[in-house]
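User: Fold this; tokens only.

Assistant: Input:
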Amino acid sequence: MFGRRKFLSFPLVIGAVIIGVASGKAIFGPPLEEYWTKKQQEEAAAKETDASSK
């Protein structure tokens, strides 16, 4: 019924990968940046707490 006789062309696959990476960065980029910034601040605060307690 929906049988494919040929593989996908290389340029089509490359184009899909580029579009996927670009849209992924656009969608998930800002929240990930915010997450890692908070995570680094928490780690820095934890190191300061450990250094001051010693």
